[in-house]
Amino acid sequence: MTRTGHCLCGAVSFAFEGEANWCSHCHCESCRRQTASAFTTFLGVPDGAWKWTGEEPKVFVSSPGVRRMFCGTCGAPVAYAAERYPGETHFYVALLDDTSDLLPESHVHWDERVDWVEMADGLPKKEG
């Protein structure tokens, strides 16, 4: 199976083959600030299974060993990679062209969530 996705303006696009390693909602402060949202949802995709199919994104090193990728035209965040997660890149699920068969498995960085969001989905909530 090939999955495709792109940023808001379509300049940065990507594709990957096969299954993702995982799919989770992230509540960490850094992701909240980058996306200006209460949380975001990622897919962990094995390196070597994905490629850029449009322009390559700009990169912001948000902390040592962490690269946040975004479109240089529209500013949309598109991917995340960190040394602490070797061998995979995290893509924003909301950028995928088809998400109909994707189900998040958990909430991560639950300890950093905003107080005004209630989650009643029954998914595991992991600290840190």
Highlighted features:
128 residues, mainly beta, Metal Binding Protein, Guanine Nucleotide Exchange Factor, Chain A, seven-stranded mixed sheet, three-stranded antiparallel sheet, 1 helix, 5% helix, 39% strand
Distance between the termini: 32 Å
The Rg value, from CA coordinates, equals 14 Å
Principal-axes geometry comes out as globular
Q: Could you tell me the strand content as a percent range?
A: 35-45%
List the total number of helices.
1
**Main sheet summary:** 7 strands, mixed
Please provide the count of β strands: 10
CATH class: Mainly Beta
What are the segments in which pLDDT stays under 50 over at least 5 consecutive residues? Answer: none
Strand order in the sheet with the most strands:
6-7-8-9-4-3-10
Explain this structure.
The structure is a single chain. 5% of the residues lie in helices and 39% in strands. The mean pLDDT is 96. It is globular, with a radius of gyration of 14 Å. The chain has one domain: Metal Binding Protein, Guanine Nucleotide Exchange Factor, Chain A (Beta Complex), CATH 2.170.150. The longest helix has 7 residues, at 29-35. The chain is mainly β and 128 residues long. The N and C termini lie far apart (32 Å). It contains one helix and ten strands, in the order E-E-E-H-E-E-E-E-E-E-E. The strands form two sheets. A seven-stranded mixed sheet has the order 6-7-8-9-4-3-10, covered by helices on one side. A three-stranded antiparallel sheet has the order 1-2-5, with no helix packed on it. The protein has one helix at residues 29-35; strands at 2-6, 13-17, 22-26, 40-46, 50-52, 58-63, 66-70, 77-82, 88-92, 106-108.
